[in-house]
Structures are given as C-alpha cells and as structure tokens.
Amino acid sequence: MNYFPEEVLEHVFDFLTSHRDRNAVSVVCKSWYTVERFSRERVFVGNCYAISPERLIERFPRVRSLTLKGMPHFADFNLVPNDWGGFVYPWIEAMVKSGVNLEELRLKRMVVSDEGLELLSRSFANFNSLVLVSCEGFTTDGLAAIASNCRYNNVLYAFMDMYGVDLDDVNHLGKLGTRNHVSKLVSIFVLQIQTPFDDAYDWQRFLRELDLQENEVEDHRGQWLSCFPDSCTSLVSLNFACLKGEVNLAALERLVARCRKLRSLRLNHAVPLDSLQKILAQAPQLVDLGTGAFVSDPNSESYHKLQAAILKCTSIRSLSGFLEVAPRCLDAMYPICLNLTSLNLSYAPGIHGSDLIKLIRNCRKLQRLWVLDCIGDKGLEVVASTCKELQELRVFPSDPHGVGHAAVTEEGLVAISAGCPKLHSLLYFCQQVTNAALINVAKNCPNFIRFRLATLNPTIPDPVTFQPLDEGFGAIVQSCKRLRRLSLSGHLTDQVFLYIGMYAEQLEMLSIAFAGETDKGMLYVLNGCKKLKKLEIRDSPFGNMGLLTDVGKYETMRSLWMSSCEVTLGGCKALAKKMPRLNVEIIDENGLIEVNPDDDDRQKVEKMYLYRTLVGPRRDAPEFVWTL
C-alpha cells in the first residue's frame, strides 16, 4: 500500500490538520500507521480517563501539543460534585518520565495543582504555551512558577527551525536512521560555531502564551506578574481576566512594554483605566484586547490619553472585558469598533440600553457577539440590521438563577435569523419560545452547526398554542443539515426525538433537560444519530429500557451522562456486565444508595456517567464514585 518514501508521507500528513483525518490515515495500513505515529505532534484527548498517559505517549512518542478534557460538560452547571476527579498531575508526571518534548498544554475542566504547574515549568525545555479553561485547584503560586521557569534556548531552536530539525533528533541522535537528519544536525553545530551572533539576539526565550479562561484561582499574592524575568520578551498572548486578586500594575506595564510581539491581552477587574491607557500606548500592535475596570471621568487627563492611545490601536479586531464600566467612557472605544470582528460583553452588566445599542451600531463587521440579555429585543434588532457578517451569537441571562424575567424573547431571535444569513452558531437564553418562531429561524438560517436554546422555564409549552415545541425543534433539525451540536429546552415529547433521529445525521452532541415521555424518545436518538459522540440527559423520564436496548451504540460514543432520570442501579450493573470495555460510574455524593442486591432494580441512580476507555476503571475515584 505504501508507494512513497516515509519522508514524503510525513510531509503529506502535515497537511492533515484535523484529528479525525489523522486517525483515518493511521488505519489505512501498517506503514501509514507507523509514519502517522511518529509524525503526529498535536494530540487531542476528549476524556482524560479514556486512555492512560503512558499508553498515549507510547502511541505518539513525539507529541508536542496536548489537549486534555476532564470533568463532564454538566460540571459547568454544578452537576458534578467537587473532588470527582480529572487530575492533570499524573499526565505531567508521565510525560516528564518519558522525556516527551512538550511545548503546549491545553486543559479544560481539570484539576490543576501548584505542584503540577511547578513540575511543568521546570521539566520541558521547549515549553511555551499553557491554556487553562474552567480548571481549578491551583493558586497564583503556580502561575508564578510558570512565569519564572518556562524558558528555552532561543539560538539553538532558531537554527533547528531554520533547518527543519526536530528536538527529538537532538535527544535521540544515536537512534536516527537517515543520513539526511544527521547532516542537518551537523549543519546546526557548525553554524553555531561559525556564525557571529548579534549581541541583541535573545539567547533564551520564554513563555509565548498564558491563557486563563474562567478558572477558579486562589490568589495568594498579587505579585505573580513580576515573576516574568526582565529578559522575557516573547509573550504573544496573556489572559488573566478570571483572576479576582490585585495586580502589580508596574510589573504588568513593564512586561507589556518589552513584549513587542504581544497580540492578545485580557486584563482583570483590578487593572484601572489609567493603567489601560499606559498599556495601549506601549502596545498599539494588539489584535485582541480585554479591558479591566473601564471607569474614569471623561474630562480627566487619563481619559484623554486613553482616547489618543486607542486611535493608534488600528489592529484590534477582538474586544472584551468591561468588568466595571462607566457608560460615559465608552465613546473612547468607537474608533476601534469599526474594524471589530469579535465583541464579548457577557461580563459587562454595566453596558445596557441605549449605550449598548450605540456601541453595536458602530460594529458593522462583527462575526462573533457574546452579550447579556439586557440587550433586549430592540438591541437584537439593531444587531440584525447592522451586523450582516455575524456568524456566532451567544445571549446569556443577566440573572443566571432565573428569578427575574429574561429581557429577550423569540422576537429578537427571529429578527437575528432574518438579518444575519451567515449565522451558524447560537446560544440563546429566553423566557419562552413558540413553534412559529423556531420554524422561521430554521427557514432563515439553514446553516446552523450549533444550536442551543434554553428557556428559563424549561418545561413551558408554546405560549400561543399551548402545544409542545416538537414541531419547532423538528424544523431546526430538518432544515439544518450540518447540525453537529443541539441543546433542547421547553415542553417536548417523544416526537421531537423521532425528528432528531430521522434528520440530524451529522449530530455529535445532544443535551436534553426536562424533556421526553418514555424510553422510546431516547431510543429514537440512539438508533438514528449515527455520528453521535456525546449524549447528556438530566431530569427526564428515560429509564432502563432506554439505557439497555442498544448498548452497542455506546462503543461508538465518547460518553453518556444521565442524572435525575429513571435509571436504576440494577440497570447500570446490567450495562456494565454487557459492556466490560466501558466505565459505568455511579455518582452518589449524598450516600443514598444502599448495598442490597435484592433492591438493585428499585434503587434509582441519581447520576450515572458512562464512557469508553482503553484502560479500565480509574484509580483515583473518590469514595462516592462507584465504578461497576
């Protein structure tokens, strides 16, 4: 099957950027498997318990960029108890022991410790990028270690990049099998001896990216930013918007001033407008800006300096922040609004009403908008008439607990769908919705890839006809042929799941809450959605029949979550017995389940998490997690 030299195949495989395509070529034949194994540098693991770190490293010994996900998605809604798991330390430890040349680590919903960050910072010579999303367990001490210790030899790597030599070639010189690689290594060392270096050239480079998104970080001290060495000039992206503590403003300003390649900077609430204007004056090259506290007197000197600095920031395309804001100060931002393609105001409750609408009117090139529902239907109508390039919209509730009334309705949603024909990704929280509105949306926007709609009263029917919302969501799945992610809300019967099974051929992730009538609804989905990878269900009437009728389907899925359903302990045990290659976890943090085999079929399971794994039951499960 292999008619090409391995070097040629490596170069061809380099053009395959998706993990699925890489997986596909690896199963063509043994030689392709081998080439793909040793050439894959970027690896994605959707469940950190699906495989052990040792096995992954054996499979991809040259991994340089690793993405790991830990806790289930419903952890975002506080449905996964504390101490459930998702620890990254064993992964870092295994990579250290194996000598992996890790450069990038991206984690989501994982438990990260200061010890892990310390080990990470000291163990990988070429490490330069850390992205943490919705993680917990660490403090600013861990961030200080990352800032202090992540550095690598810039001269050596400059030559390696120039001549296409991997660090693995250096580390495993004795194992190299081609003259070509050896000659490249010789060239490097000869050049290092013969080439006179510019005194201004950095002998060491430091972290390029530190991105902290929505993490729970304990602030031990506000001085972690001062831990970046004075010689650190390599930062391209820095995001600490989620940190709640104070910031060493002088250290921040010095860091920004010397990192001339900085493109993305997102600040926390402790960075005042006065510091922002100094930062922007030092970094007019920014492309992505997240402001901190945007409060000042419009007549003050610092505000006028800010206006002058913003006029020079002609490259900014993404804007976020405004964690604290004085609406009178927003005028300063209008010059950069004209070129914005991304605007995130989901943490800016202080911007609303006419101020918000005025801001939106200046953003005619927006492709991505995140906003609170205080924008109202009138504001969404302005978005629809102004932002013709909009591709992604997320409307979050101002009151996440749902005590008040949502400020947007189906009218705003219909207006957006009519005015923004390129829209393909939606997250929308509203009080209620009608079938007619959903049918209109389906007609106007048939290109949806992600459609997530949540009503604050999750069981309410169509408020006009008092019928279930089956036909509305049925229209969505029937019209949107490329739909990959769907979240349902409102009064729904088994009929909507029949529609989903019939028409949602590309669906990969489905979230269900307070929906359905019988087990047939669940079976419609499992039997019909051939590409389904993740199914999460809460507060729905599905039970053992829905769980056990088509157990073979779970072999092709990544995971199934069921909470507050009708599944029993006996049903879960039967599933575990039939499918030994799956981990079936019972989460009983309240200690409600009694060990009595005679009652297994009567004891309802509050939370069940099922996932495919290659390594069997995990070793770090807490006492309240039973692996059957």
From TrEMBL:
Main localization (coarse): nucleus
Q: Which pathway is this protein assigned to?
A: Protein modification; protein ubiquitination
Please verify whether the record's keywords include Nucleus.
yes
The Gene Ontology biological process annotation of the record reads:
auxin-activated signaling pathway; pollen maturation; SCF-dependent proteasomal ubiquitin-dependent protein catabolic process
One GO term of the cellular component aspect? SCF ubiquitin ligase complex
Please state where this protein is localized: Nucleus
Q: Does the keyword Nucleus apply?
A: yes
Keywords attached to this entry: Auxin signaling pathway, Developmental protein, Nucleus, Ubl conjugation pathway
F-box domain ranges (all copies): 4-45
Could you tell me one molecular function GO term of this UniProt entry?
auxin binding
Tell me the SMART domains matching this sequence: FBOX (SM00256), LRR_CC (SM00367)
Q: Under what name is this protein listed?
A: F-box domain-containing protein
Give the species this sequence originates from.
Answer: Rhododendron williamsianum
